[in-house]
Each structure stands twice: as C-alpha cells, then as structure tokens.
Amino acid sequence: MKKAEIIIDKYFLTGDVDKRIYGSFIEQLGRAVYGGIYQEGNSNSDEQGFRKDTLKLVKELGVPIVRYPGGNFVSGFHWEDSVGPKAQRPARTELAWKVIETNEFGLNEFADWSRKAGSDVMMAVNLGTRGPEEAKNLLEYCNFEGGTYYSDLRRAHGYEKPHQIKVWCLGNEMDGTWQMGHKTAGEYGRIASETARLMKWLDPDIETVACGSSGLAMPTFGEWEYQVLDECYHEVDYLSLHQYFGNRSDNTADFLAGSKGMDDFISGVISLCDAVKAKKHAKKSIHLSFDEWNVWYHSNEQDKKIRPWEKAPHQLEDVYNFEDALLVGSMLITLLRHADRVKIACMAQLVNVIAPIMTSDTGAWRQTIFYPYMHASAFGRGTVLQTQIKAPVYESQSYGAVSILDSVCIWDQQAEALTIFAVNKDLTEDAEVTCDLRQFEGYRVKEHLVLTHDDLKAENTEAAPDTVKPSCSQASRLDHGKLTMVFGRHSWNVVRLEKER
Ligand code: AHR
Q1: Pocket test for ligand 1, best of 292, 296, 297, 299 (most atoms within 8 A of CB)
Q2: Catalytic: which of 292, 317, 323, 498?
Q3: Which of 36, 346, 424 is nearest to 172 (CA)?
Q4: Quick check: pTM over 0.90?
Q5: Alpha-carbon distance 433 to 404, whole Å?
Q6: Is 101 annotated in the active site?
Q7: Which residues of the chain fall short of a pLDDT of 50?
Q8: Residue 233 burial by Cβ neighbours in a 10 Å radius (0-12, 13-18, 19+)
Q9: How many angstroms separate the CA atoms of 269 and 243, rounded?
Q10: Pocket of ligand 1 (CB under 6 A)
Q11: What pLDDT sits at residue 501?
Q12: pLDDT of 291-346, one tens digit each?
C-alpha cells in the first residue's frame, strides 16, 4: 500500500469555484445536434423535437453553460441561414467537417434547448470567413430589445424577448492552419480587438473570450498569446485554451500523466497574460476559459472512412473506457486547482461527439467519463482550498516526474460541507491517504464514492450501459480530526464530509 498525505488549511484559499467551470459544448457537427439533442419524430422527443432522454442526462450533469455553434464549424457559419422559417433555410456545404448542414436546427432552437436544459449559452462568432460587422449584427439579433433591423427580425421569427447571451467567443482556434480564415497572431489580435469593441459598444454587459492556443504543442504557443493580448487586452475578458489527450501508444501511466501537461499549460498561459498586464500597466487581469478539453482519439481512424458531404454522419464518436474517466477526473481536479484564474471550462463536447452522453434512435446512455464530470459539477461548488499533496511520484515518458495522486479540496462554507476529489493513478497499488482535519471540528464523513474497474479498457455501451459506474466505499474514516482514506489502485474518488447537525 502506498502512503500519501493531503494538507489543507481553512485560511489558505485558492478562490471560489465559478460554476461555469462545469460548462460544455455543442457544435453543429456529426450527431451532436441531429440525433443527439434534436430529432423530430423520435418517440423520445418533445413537441420541439428535443430529445427528452438526452435532456434528462444533461440535467443530471448540471451543465451551467454550453458553448455553441462551434468549434471549427463556426469559422464558416452564416448565422442568418439558421434563423427564420425552417422551410426557407438554405442547406450549405460545411467545409470544416466536409458535410452538408441543413440548418434545420439553428440558434433560436439552441436558445430554447438551453433554457430547457437549465444552461446559459456561450455564443461563438465567425472571425474566419467573416468579421466585426456580422458579429455585431448577430449580437443585435440576440440581445437587443427591439426597434432595429436585427432585433425586429428576431421578433418576427417569434422571439419577442432577447436571448441575453452574456459570454461571446471571438472566433475559434484561429492559430490553427486547419481553421477557415486562419490568421497570424497579429492579424487575429486586431480583428478580435475591433470585433469586441463594436460588440461592447452595442452591449456593454457582455464578456468576450479571445482565442488562445489550440493546444500546448502548437508551434506558435506563447508568441500567440502574447501578441494577441498585446492587441486586444483591454477589449477582452478571457483567453481560451484547448487541449485533448489520447492513449495512442497504449501507455496508461503516461496517458494519465496528461493532467500534468494541462497544469503546465494553464500555468504558462497565466504567466503570459500577466506579462502583458505588466507591460500595459493594466489593472484588470485576464481570466482563462478552457473551453475545449477532453480525451479524443478513439474515433480518429474510423472518421477517415467517412465519405464527404453526408448529413450528420457518425463523426468523432469516441467510445470511452474506464482509463479515460480517470484522466477526465484528473483534468477536472486540475481545472479546480486553478479556480482563481480558470472561470469557464467546457468539456468538449456534450452529446455523441466526443461526449459523456451517447444516443441511438432508441435511447441515451452515460459514457464512463460522465461520472467524474457529474460528481464534480454536483459536489464541487464552493471555495477551493490550497491543496498540498505529499505523495510518491513516477517517471512518465512525456511529462517527467508525476505524482500518483491528483487531488483538490472544496469547502462549501454555507452548507458546511467539504469535498475531496482524488485520482489514484497508481496502476498496481492502493494508497492510504491521510488529511489533518482538526480545523473542521464537528465534521463527519457523509459518503465516499468510487469509480473503478479491474479492466482499464471497460466501456459502457447501449447494450451494457452500467459496466462502469460509481459505487459507495467504506474506506474513509475520521478519527479525532485525522481523516484516513484508502484510494484503490486506478480509481476516481469523491470523499464528502459535512458538519454534524
Ligand atoms: O471539438 C472538436 C473540434 O476540436 C472543434 O471543432 C475544434 O475547435 C477543435 O479542434
């Protein structure tokens, strides 16, 4: 048995959890929309064609904000195609994913769906093939009360009240050569600045997100952040980060070490934001929007076989296994450990496309990665405590020395509840982990939830949807202020404590 210690102090706080850290993402891509959240005529759909079984699972996750409509898709999107009477909406060639987009589902439908899901919309504008003018028009359509061309167009489309969308992404992954309208950092920084200026003149209450790097491995990383912010620092509120991981060489220890890469990425971007802040003698800090994160690799080969110009093909449909859930748990812990600067994060994506929820014509089910996301969203609200870890390390191929234990403690002062999230990455040994809780007098262990499976490659499918699911453990006890927890080899753990009443 490995031994480790978690050290917290109730006066040493990282910061409050912004609930938007549990955000997600729906792109007009594959079966995320068509057959995922929307399917006219399906017996599981409501009067608007929204899949009720999907909505139920989205609500279980408690998703506070959903980014839309892309992703790469947005960089060629004509938002005007997606509104108004459905019969008049044009079908278009969609170049990002080489499919036909019918526009049967568009931005008003998404606003309706989000309301039903209990989520806010985080809207992205097209800064690939379009610019500030079209972004400003879209904002007017969405947020302006009435009496102008675009706000009255919305009303004519049956939406009397504005959608009041607060968070706006200024394009998507503009550093990537795969992006329609790809730009250099200088070009993008200028257009982001001008777009944000117009948009904020129209609606000063909105917040804007500038595109950061599409991954830590981008050759322009660093230079990109610095130059972009140098152009648009005063006009934007957040800088984005995107990162996906894959176990391509079937090296689980190295794969699970990916959260160290994510942590390095976040720390690096914070330094870059603060360097520009210092240079500009600015008062405000730029916060981070980690608006695409997940595991993505299982579907790569299959996707190469898709013929171009299909409608809503099975695309990016990763079937997740148990080890993916462990990394997702570690990624959530990493985001929370940076809660002082990471205010928005979106698991990419939500349904069918690299997603925690899968659907078929006959039902919807939870992938393995659903569970850590659901646990974090349900129990990870409050204030993040600075969480020091004393644990053995292992040498990973890609990230150097990595702790076997990822963990973070969150204290909900109002509810007098303390939650510890932890991943034991050790593949062979359990870990006995202690934590001095004498400052939390009167607390008791409420429950210890565990997600584990003997087979790291175990999956949930429609036929066997409960192969990997959480269970309750008795392996935590609190004795005279000393908490002792046993985290099984390769396991995700949620230890919940509350004050005895
Ligand atoms: O989430 C899938 C794709 O990944 C998004 O469209 C793009 O932004 C990223 O490269």
Answers
A1: 292
A2: 292
A3: 346
A4: yes
A5: 11
A6: no
A7: none
A8: buried
A9: 13
A10: 27, 70-72, 172-173, 292, 348-349
A11: 86
A12: 999 999 999 999 999 999 999 999 999 999 999 999 999 999 999 999 999 999 99
Distance from residue 332's CA to the centre of ligand 1 (Å)? 19
Joined together, the tokens standing for residue 62 give 């408690």
The label of the residue with tokens 């409509």 reads 69
* CA 498 – ligand 1 centroid, Å: 40
173 is catalytic: yes
Query: Could you identify the residue written with the tokens 């499976």?
Result: 453
The model's pLDDT over 24-56, given as tens digits with 9 standing for 90+, comes to 999 999 999 999 999 999 999 999 999 999 999
**pLDDT tens digits for range 174-184:** 999 999 999 99
Residues 185/232, Cβ–Cβ less than 8 Å: no
The residue among 381, 358, 380, 384 whose CA lies nearest residue 369 is 358
- Residue 402 token pair: 């990595």
Closest approach atom of ligand 1 to CA 70: 6
- 3-class DSSP assignment, residue 347: strand
The Cα–Cα gap between 472 and 449 comes to 5
Which entry of 134, 173, 225, 235 is annotated as an active-site residue? Answer: 173
Q: Using CB atoms within 10 A of its CB, is residue 373 exposed (0-12), middle (13-18) or buried (19+)?
A: buried
